[in-house]
Task: structure prediction
Amino acid sequence: MRKYIARRLLLFIPTLLGASILIFVLLRLVPGDIAEILVYQSGTEQSAVQEKQIQEIRQEFGLDRPIAVQYVVWLGNALRGDFGYSYTQRRPVSEIVAERFPRSMELAILTLVVAVVWAIPLGVVSAARQNTWVDYVVRLVSISGLSLPIFFTGVLILYGLVRFFQWLPPLEFVAFTVDPMENLKQFVWPTLAQAYYISAPITRLTRSQMLEVIRQDYIRTARAKGLGNRSVVYHHALRNSLLPVVTFLGWWGGRLLGGIVIMEIIFAIPGMGTALVQAVNYRDYPTVQALVFVMSLIFLALNLIVDLLYAWLDPRIRYA
Amino acid sequence: MPEVADRAGIALGARGREARVRLGLAPRAGALARWLAWFAVTQPLGAIGAVIVLALVVTAILAPQLAPHGAKDAAFAPYLSPSAEFPMGTDNIGRDVLSRVIWGARLSLYVGLVSVAFGITLGALWGVVAAYFGGPADSVSQRLVDMLMALPPIILALSLMAALGQSVNNVIIALALLLIPTAARTLRSVALSIKETPYVEAARASGCSHWRVIFLHVLPNTFATYVVLFTVNIAYAIVVEAALSFLGLGAPPDEPSWGGMLTAGTQAMETAPWMIFFPGLAISLTVFGLNLLGDAIRDLTDPRLRGGLG
Result:
């Protein structure tokens, strides 16, 4: 187990670095950089003066140096927690990240908790009563959850709220520490919309795993011993069915993060997602880099935790 | 010597051959109708999916004939509610929503098919070649896949769109790049097991070159997995395209992308809710159909893939 953990940890760092290099290089393939955007904003003709301005801005931001040098400088600073200055917001990027990070994490955690709490029992019930109306309803709900794109569900919920309850996304964001009730009110709808989407595959997976496990020999043995249905389903079958669900959660972490971007935009939550879309629009490299870096870090960490959890739960992985 | 029916089956691999027999794809012409009937009975949900997908394809192909107006014709009064003349109303700058939804089918399908074809094919080649040669090249390629997969998909797509600029073709490039690592990883694991089979060994022993073995013996046997990846990911690509356009970073706003239409709708949802309903319904129905069909194909080609990550 220790060896397995060490190996996974050793892979973690180069992968994260590689991903950051990738994003760094990608962003520098952009046809027009921030200097050009800032200078040509006014929409006037190109001129020698503007050319000079562009050169100056590039120098100020260090964009005139070779990409490799820029990356090393960036990485060195990033390791010390300094992600540079936002081009557009004129404040340290680390400040933006620190401000936005908890909001996005709150949405992610709420979504996961709600999704798991309602999806797993649904999957179990659906499998335990296979081919009854309960099963059909659950399956229909989950396949519709998979088919309704998250941005459509979000927009529909927002429409319902606006149309029937005259509710509008609040202009001011209230932190949980300031006013927990007011804060949760802002998170309820995006959480439910996303949980509906995330829970669909979890329900389906739980159901199919339960069905597979129920046919195993040891379940027959348990029944033959005279154990009741309840004990067999919850004690023997459920435990073994949840393994793939655990992996799945890590696997869908990426979609969860993507969904958070969309939910934040729809419900006007000033989290990392809204910041990212804004930064991409303005080609605010330092902000995009920092946000993508943090998101990849979360995503990789989630996968690492899931893998370790899986190895801990299933000895076959550990010793393979 | 393998028989003709079997030779066709080889393309699907050992498990695929069995599936092929069950699919009834024997080289007999009259079998098609019977097979369709059999499919509808054993996979009713899949059949519904197939009908929806067929309708989508027909709409996409016949868009110029079906759409009453052009997708970009802003020739009418804005915010007209649905009526006989405009069954889905008009949008914020006076374009017929029905026409845009119809043209949107073409755009979605085009983006979905082309990006998946590129992404899955390149990823498959990458995975199979890496698996076949193994060694340090394989390790390096695996790490590269890890790096690409370390970026959450939508986030990677967003950054790519920032780098490439907004256009339909760039959306296709971004989506293809998104799919390559997934395909590479899946096909690599399939190819690893094929590589160890006796027939590959036999091919090598009889003097086939490495590339001949890869293209004639290993690659064709990954076909079942390829087909499943292909169908499953079309729905995914269509949704991601719509999501990117929804965020204002996909197709340019005048293109009839369902996602972009939704964004325009959210800005006017109190006055013109039809601007969000119809494009949203179109995406949902499309994804629903593709999901059902994809599930059925997965069940048919490989029972072991059932209940996977779908």
In short: The first helix of chain B runs from residue 4 to 10. The radius of gyration of chain B is 22 Å. Chain B touches chain A through 46 residues (CB under 8 Å).
